[in-house]
Every structure is written in structure tokens, then in C-alpha cells.
Specification:
Keywords: ATP synthesis, Cell membrane, CF(1), Hydrogen ion transport, Ion transport, Membrane, Transport
Largest sheet: 4 strands, mixed
GO molecular function: proton-transporting ATP synthase activity, rotational mechanism
CATH topology of the largest domain: Peroxidase, domain 1
Number of strands: 4
Shape: elongated
Strand content: 5-15%
Protein name: ATP synthase subunit delta
InterPro entries: ATP_synth_OSCP/delta_N_sf, ATPase_OSCP/dsu
Radius of gyration: 20 Å
Structural class: alpha+beta
Main location: membrane
Distance between the termini: 34 Å
Number of helices: 8
CATH architecture of the largest domain: Orthogonal Bundle
Helix content: 55-70%
Length: 177
Amino acid sequence: MLHANVARPYAQALFNLAKQEKSENKWLKVLADLKEIVEAEGFSLLINNPKIDGKEQLKLIETILKNDATPEVVSLLNLLSENNRLIILSDIYNIFRELVLEDQKCADAIIESAYDISQTQKDEFEKLLSDKFGKKITAQVKVNADLIAGIKITVDDKVIDGSVKGRLTNLAAQLTK
């Protein structure tokens, strides 16, 4: 998150508003849509062009959103546009999502495995991780042949590395001491 420090106050304010109105999921969808717009290749070039002011960028986003641009969304976009901050929409989404997951006692996990794992195994990992972290865990599985064998699990900022590659790396580090 390139602009996390700048985006955090916006995300926190939005989260507080959404929580008060019980509209966290609505805002998650809106922010996900905005993130998709600003990350589109053509728009990314436009938003980073200093010759195009925030008002023109704002008009383009409103045109893309059409009827989905509620007064609250337009207000957010105006605020970001006035402060030349449309570029941080992706970071606002990411931080907002983290806040929602934390509030709902949920977390995402990435399970990297040298080989594909079954749905049953994935479900078992989710249950074990939920018990370990005290949160509802939703896992995404990625096949990573570089691990050689075993798995590597990432939840929030914690990594559990049970892969052969991880063990070899640790062994190499110990041998070079």
C-alpha cells in the first residue's frame, strides 16, 4: 500500500460512518468498484497525469459509475478530488476492508502449497486456523511449486512456513552462522 499513511484517516472515517449506519458491506462494494476503476490501465495513466485536474478525473469517475454514484459516494469523491487524493482510492479500499474484517473478527489466509489441495483439506485448514487465531478464516489456495513440498500459510502479518524450501532456507541460515 503505497499511500497507506494518507489513506488511513479517510478509511477510518468511512468505516466509522459505515459502522454507524450499518452499511459496511455497501461501502465495501462501492470502494471495490472505485478501486477497480482507478486501477484500470487507462485510468491509472489519467489519474497520474498532472495536466488533468481532479475535477476532470472526478467527472470521468461519475460517468463510469452512472446511477451508482449516491450522494455519499459523490461527497467522498469530491473530497478526494479537492485534495488531489483520487490516487489513494485503492489504499482506502484495502484499509477499509481490513477494518471491516477486524471488526467482524474475520481474516483472510493464503495457503501456499507445492501441490493442489482438496476442498476438504482447505476446509480443515480454515477450521484449524480459525481455532488458532480466534477469527473466522477464509482461505485462498495458491499452488507454488517453488515450495518443493509442504505448505506456507499467511494470516494477517503472520507466516507459518512448513515447506521444504522454508526448512532448507532456515538450515542454510544456521549453517552460515
